[in-house]
Every structure is written in C-alpha cells, then in structure tokens.
Design goal:
This protein has helices spanning 6-22, 24-37, 40-48, 52-67. The protein is an all-alpha fold.
C-alpha cells in the first residue's frame, strides 16, 4: 500500500514543478535516465552535473522563492 502522506505528495509535486520550471530542457532527459537506470543520485549527476545535496539546495531556494514569496 501507499505509505506516503500529504507532505510526501507536496514534496514530490514541488520537485517536479521545479524541474519543469527551472530546467525544462533537462526534464525529459532526467526522467528517461531514471527510467533506464532507476538511480536518482546518478541521474542527477549525469543530467545536471550536481550532487544530490547540491540539487536539493537549488530546489530549496526555488521553493522558497516560488511557493513562499515575501
């Protein structure tokens, strides 16, 4: 059964929203890589040339700017 809750769904939505809005040209390539290799960390490195931590930092900044603007 699905063990996710509303916070997990919101996180996943914001992650995809960020990918589409900030990196539309890499969005498809990232998900193709994920489908082929089933490895998020390696897909982030291959497609975005960034570590998971670095990507999350970029995502968090984008979320703060776009979901909770001052």
């Amino acid at each position: 059964l699905d063990q996710t809750d509303h916070r997990d769904h919101a996180y996943a939505w914001s992650f995809v929203d960020y990918l589409v809005a900030a990196h539309p040209e890499k969005f498809k390539k990232f998900f193709q890589d994920m489908k082929l290799h089933n490895d998020t960390k390696k897909a982030l490195d291959r497609v975005f040339n960034v570590s998971t931590a670095g990507f999350h930092d970029q995502w968090r900044k984008w979320v703060r700017k776009n979901y909770a603007p001052n």
